[in-house]
Design the sequence.
């Protein structure tokens, strides 16, 4: 006992010093490691947001020129036919894309949840499109949907002479082609999100419901799906981001055409700011897109933060 | 490690040597396709033979969109290249921003004023001073046709727009697409401006150079627009988004009968081993026989801080205008020299016809800048015209009258 108690103060006098240094380092380490990221984010995300906002108030053309003209660029933008088409397209595309993705994702997740054989393989198949870049998706669907090359031609060659599917070259329908390709890409991801949620559902409650004589559809409708509200919300936020920033899909699938019938705000912004020498107008359109994102994000963050406080 | 060191010092030494003896030119361009790259290589060799260092700054992407993005970032950071491939009225925009340096000494010594038609030299000048040097002249209002296909269908190659619309059903009956076209905004605009040109150079200039509102929404414009819409019938359903060279290959292999495209299309025919006159025919676009819409590639010179770099830059400008470069470059590119009075022997029939029409139309005052290729107007106004034209061409619910009105409104809004 004695040597131990004797040795303790000895080490005790040395260790607290080293410990304190280590402790201090350990306490500062996360901050040190995160500092560069925070600085880069502050500059490259928030700094440039402010910069773009200022730019949208100037008369900048091919290069930034700090000659302020008020909100003139926004006025021009709202009068621009093409911007109108782009916003309208975004509403159609975004609405359908989010809705179909959610419905399909939930359905696929429920079906996969039935303890079937080869579930892992099926899940991989559904999820895999997410691993592919939108450029590849767009190019592949461009070939599939091209009337003279893909689906229409194949079915006509098989003997269905009257079969017509020319949405890709039809200005009134082309936006639905974007929906098809985007849904194909993202619904597997939504399925994976919901599947994880379903697996986390309270089995006791389900068993209790079964004992009470509830049917499986009833259990899904009344118990499991309502408990997946947070999953539903995350999926919605992620999907709406994908919809608003969609650029590569349009670039690869339709190039904004025919004409500018399949333009989205992101392609509009790129073209005006970088290739047409209308940087001010492009910046204004970027700010309106930011507004769109915030309109979704702020209520989401608000509800998230509030629920955490309450919980 | 040792080899790395020697390498590094070697590089440092060679840079130092080059810096001492002569200057360096850095040229930003988007001449990256086969023929174009060969053409620009000629200039590189000549510069190096004169003892200068050539830094090639090629940015891929046919329309030069990515090249312009790179150029902007370089210019903003205060480090612009010596020369950049900038076209048309965008030269004026860069001049206005104060980036370009005067070439008046070189121009005076080389007598550029007498070698270039006034319409060309005007584009090269900002505020009365030369700031850019032209490398070639493209004619845009060309009609490319496959005579074999016309023989098969028993039809004549049209010389007016009415004839072209009439010949459509005959070609279609023979299973041929009458007009090869790519549904991209600039290709729509290229066809549109050719139809507008058939209404006369004065009308064209009023609409696309002076942007006269009455002309833009007048009767003649409505007529042009409805002719343009009728051409839609001659084009196959899959044209949306098709590249121009794919459309050209449709004419080459007889799938389509005609294409309206600038003389860069000749490069595709040449590459496919076809000879002008027999395998393919080049004619002025219908109704524009003695007129000429030009599209000029040029190198604009950016202000350099170092003296020796500036000297090298002036040397470059001088060389670009010399007959040797103009000949080799344009033989490779399919265009014609911007410099007048050159030796004609090496050029083919299409290029010779183009040269004749260029000089004649300059005399007759029917030489006009191409709207579709950014010669007559800035990229802002051009974009506004593109939007209206391509939207009208592709949608079924806009009348020619409405389109004309939209055209006038869009141009006004972007001025």
Sequence:
């Amino acid at each position: 006992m004695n040597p131990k108690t004797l040795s303790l103060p000895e080490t005790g006098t040395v260790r607290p010093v080293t410990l304190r240094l280590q402790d201090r380092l350990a306490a500062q380490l996360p901050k040190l490691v995160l500092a560069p990221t925070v600085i880069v984010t502050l500059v490259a995300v928030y700094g440039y947001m402010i910069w773009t906002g200022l730019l949208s108030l100037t008369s900048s053309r091919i290069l930034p020129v700090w000659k302020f003209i008020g909100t003139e660029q926004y006025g021009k933008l709202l009068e621009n036919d093409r911007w109108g088409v782009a916003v309208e397209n975004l509403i159609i595309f975004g609405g359908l894309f989010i809705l179909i993705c959610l419905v399909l994702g939930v359905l696929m997740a429920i079906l996969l949840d039935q303890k079937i054989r080869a579930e892992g393989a099926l899940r991989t198949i559904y999820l895999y499109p997410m691993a592919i870049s939108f450029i590849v998706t767009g190019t592949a669907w461009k070939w599939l949907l091209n009337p003279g090359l893909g689906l229409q031609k194949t079915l006509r060659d098989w003997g269905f002479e009257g079969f017509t599917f020319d949405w890709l070259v039809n200005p009134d329908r082309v936006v639905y082609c974007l929906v098809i390709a985007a849904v194909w890409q993202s619904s597997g991801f939504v399925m994976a999100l919901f599947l994880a949620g379903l697996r986390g559902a309270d089995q006791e409650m389900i068993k209790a419901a079964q004992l009470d004589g509830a049917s499986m559809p009833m259990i899904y409708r009344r118990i499991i799906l309502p408990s997946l509200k947070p999953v539903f919300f995350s999926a919605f936020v992620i999907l709406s981001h994908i919809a608003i920033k969609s650029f590569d899909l349009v670039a690869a699938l339709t190039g904004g055409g025919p004409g500018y019938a399949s333009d989205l705000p992101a392609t509009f912004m790129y073209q005006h700011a970088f290739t047409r020498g209308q940087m001010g107008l492009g910046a204004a359109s970027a700010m309106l897109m930011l507004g769109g994102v915030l309109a979704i994000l702020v209520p989401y963050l608000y509800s998230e933060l509030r629920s955490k406080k309450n919980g | 490690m040792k080899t790395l060191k020697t390498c590094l010092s070697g590089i440092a030494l060679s840079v130092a040597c080059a810096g001492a003896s002569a200057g360096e030119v850095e040229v930003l361009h988007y001449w990256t396709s086969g023929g174009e790259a060969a053409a620009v290589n000629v200039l590189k060799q000549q510069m190096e033979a004169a003892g200068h260092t050539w830094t090639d700054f090629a940015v891929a992407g046919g329309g030069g969109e990515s090249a312009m993005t790179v150029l902007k970032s370089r210019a903003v950071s205060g480090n612009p290249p010596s020369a950049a491939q900038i076209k048309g009225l965008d030269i004026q925009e860069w001049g206005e921003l104060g980036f370009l340096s005067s070439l008046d000494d070189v121009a005076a010594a080389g007598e550029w004023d007498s070698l270039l038609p006034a319409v060309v030299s005007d584009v090269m000048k900002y505020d009365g001073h030369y700031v850019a040097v032209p490398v070639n002249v493209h004619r845009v209002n060309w009609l490319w046709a496959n005579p074999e296909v016309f023989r098969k269908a028993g039809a004549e190659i049209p010389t007016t727009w009415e004839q072209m619309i009439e010949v459509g059903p005959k070609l279609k009956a023979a299973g041929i697409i009458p007009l090869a076209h790519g549904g991209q905004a600039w290709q729509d605009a290229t066809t549109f401006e050719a139809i507008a040109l058939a209404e006369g150079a004065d009308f064209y200039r009023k609409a696309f150079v002076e942007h006269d509102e009455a002309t833009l929404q007048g009767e003649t414009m409505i007529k042009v627009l409805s002719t343009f819409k009728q051409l839609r019938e001659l084009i196959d359903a899959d044209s949306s988004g098709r590249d121009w060279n794919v459309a050209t290959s449709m004419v080459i292999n007889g799938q389509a009968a005609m294409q309206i495209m600038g003389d860069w299309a000749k490069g595709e025919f040449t590459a496919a081993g076809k000879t002008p006159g027999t395998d393919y025919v080049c004619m002025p676009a219908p109704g524009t026989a003695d007129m000429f819409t030009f599209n000029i590639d040029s190198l604009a010179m950016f202000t350099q801080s170092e003296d020796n770099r500036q000297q090298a830059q002036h040397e470059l400008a001088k060389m670009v205008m010399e007959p040797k470069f103009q000949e080799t470059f344009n033989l490779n590119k399919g265009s014609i020299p911007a410099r007048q009075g050159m030796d004609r022997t090496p050029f083919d029939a299409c290029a010779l016809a183009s040269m004749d029409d260029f000089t004649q139309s300059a005399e007759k005052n029917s030489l006009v800048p191409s709207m579709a290729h950014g010669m007559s107007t800035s990229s802002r106004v051009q974009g506004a015209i593109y939007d209206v034209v391509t939207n009208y061409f592709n949608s079924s619910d806009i009348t020619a009258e409405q389109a004309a009105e939209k055209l006038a409104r869009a141009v006004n809004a972007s001025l």
